[in-house]
Amino acid sequence: MQNQNYTMAKIRITKQFTFETAHALYGYDGKCQNIHGHSYKLDVTVIGKPIEDLNHVKRGMVIDFGDLKQIVKKEVVDVWDHAIILNQDTPHIELGEQLKASGHDVVLVNYQPTSEKMIEDFANRIASKLPEEMALFSLKLRETETAFAEWFATDN
């Protein structure tokens, strides 16, 4: 077998984030129509080539995990953690306004706040903030230990 040289190979970097969020699914025909919460886990994977510049402080990295953390924390975790997510067209809007008025974090979105639509929103938020030399490769959003949604750039 021939020895391969993988210098300048693209590498995927993944960091996991956790946050607690409540939501309600307006018009749904089951229990999830009621406000309820989840302990979400979000895996964020970016792809790029490690920095080769000998003078760069982040040499050898695709992205510093701390830099990725800052982006995801600002765009997702700080917004969604311990907040109530509601479709802006829901009849729960009055409750949402009352909760806001009493100091609770309420996020109104223009979509049904399912894992599928949330992950799509997260992909747009995160991808727009990444440095241009890398790309968002995938996201995995776990709503429970056994249920999750995945987003891949190659599918979109």
Write up what this structure looks like.
- With 156 residues, this protein is of the alpha/beta class.
- The chain is built from 3 helices and 6 strands, in the order ββαβαβαββ.
- It has helices at 65-80, 93-101, 115-127, and strands at 11-23, 36-48, 83-87, 106-109, 134-142, 148-152.
- It has a 6-stranded mixed β-sheet, sandwiched between helices.
- The protein is elongated and about 60 Å long.
- The model has no long low-confidence stretch (mean pLDDT 93).
Write the layout of secondary structure elements.
Elements: E1 11-23, E2 36-48, H1 65-80, E3 83-87, H2 93-101, E4 106-109, H3 115-127, E5 134-142, E6 148-152
Parallel strand pairs: 1-3, 3-4
Antiparallel strand pairs: 1-2, 2-5, 5-6
Output the keywords:
156 residues; alpha/beta; Tetrahydropterin Synthase, Chain A; six-stranded mixed β-sheet; 3 helices; elongated
Strand residues, percent: 25-35%
According to CATH, the fold-level topology is: Tetrahydropterin Synthase, Chain A
Note the total helix count.
Answer: 3
The CATH fourth-level homologous superfamily: 6-pyruvoyl tetrahydropterin synthase/QueD
The first-level CATH class name: Alpha Beta
Strand count, sense and barrel status of the largest sheet are: 6 strands, mixed
- Straight-line distance between termini: 36 Å
| Count of folded domains | 1
The tally of strands reads 6
Q: On the 0-100 scale, what is the average pLDDT? A: 93
Order of helices and strands: EEHEHEHEE
Mind telling me the C-alpha Rg?
A: 19 Å
